[in-house]
User: What shape does this take?
Amino acid sequence: MEIVIIYTVLGIVALGLLVLFVKFFGLWFRALLSGAPVGPARLIGMYLRKVNPSVIVDARIMLTKAGLPLDSDLLETHYLARGDVARVSQALVAASKANIPLPFGRAAAIDLAGRDVLEAVRTSVNPKVIDCPDPSKGKQAIDAVARDGIQLKVKVRITVRANIERLVGGATEETIIARVGEGIVTTIGSSENYKTVLENPDLISKRVLEKGLDAGTAFEILSIDIADIDVADNIGAKLQADQAEADMRRFQAEAEKRRAAAFALEQEMRALTQENRAKVVLAEAEIPRAIAEAFRAGNMGIMDYYRLKNIEADTSMRRGIGGGDEDGSAGSPPPENR
Assistant: This one.
């Protein structure tokens, strides 16, 4: 019974080895013939570590044929770090053919940073052109206003080359576009008039390049070319018109405020006048009482009373001749003398 168990275990082991041999024999033999041998034990270890052996073997073969032999441990480590081993290997080969110094560690770091390392190598060899502003963002031109108030619309094409050494941690194309746009606005804004810019559009390129806008970015600016420049609106005139309208509204508001204050003061004076007239009427109402009291006390005679009435009649007549009393009403006719 024990012998049967032993033979069964040995049979299972042998069958497993046969399966592994059939599975990895092609890779092992292909690597051996290509001059980049990978031992069967290492292939099995890759399988157990959940590393795709085909990717590692193909990358080693490509690098070895290009004269860049590389230890499979480095390739496995990059694969386990979720890196693109095939892309990095292609970038190393392309950089080697273009005489661009690119060690594997830097290429792996660029790939793990989310950058396309192969595209970066290609851009180093064959510079690419960036439109400023980016049409895909919905903006077709950069708007800038000269000192005379005329607005210009500018389209720029930037030729850049990837800087391999600054790809890790370097700013992207968006930063280049933003800096160039800022430089264009500053250059046009410092020009005396728009005609100067139209006569010398290369002035924009020279001043923008002098600023060193590629500092801290993953690219090197080779040239900045003005693709198109158009005259737009007279922003200065519009701003002056808007300011004049705003001033007019402000002055109108102040005038309305003064008018309201004057009207309120007029109403207040009228109320005060009515109040004083009421006081006069009250005072005049006391006169008959005072006269009656004077009669009762014997301080005033009938002749004194008639003289007082004559004086009042003369005063009323003079007011009538003069055009009325103080409040604009005609004077009352003098009483008849008795």
About this structure: The two ends are 170 Å apart (CA to CA). The CA atoms of residues 148 and 193 lie 5 Å apart. The chain has three domains: 2-125, 128-231, 301-338.
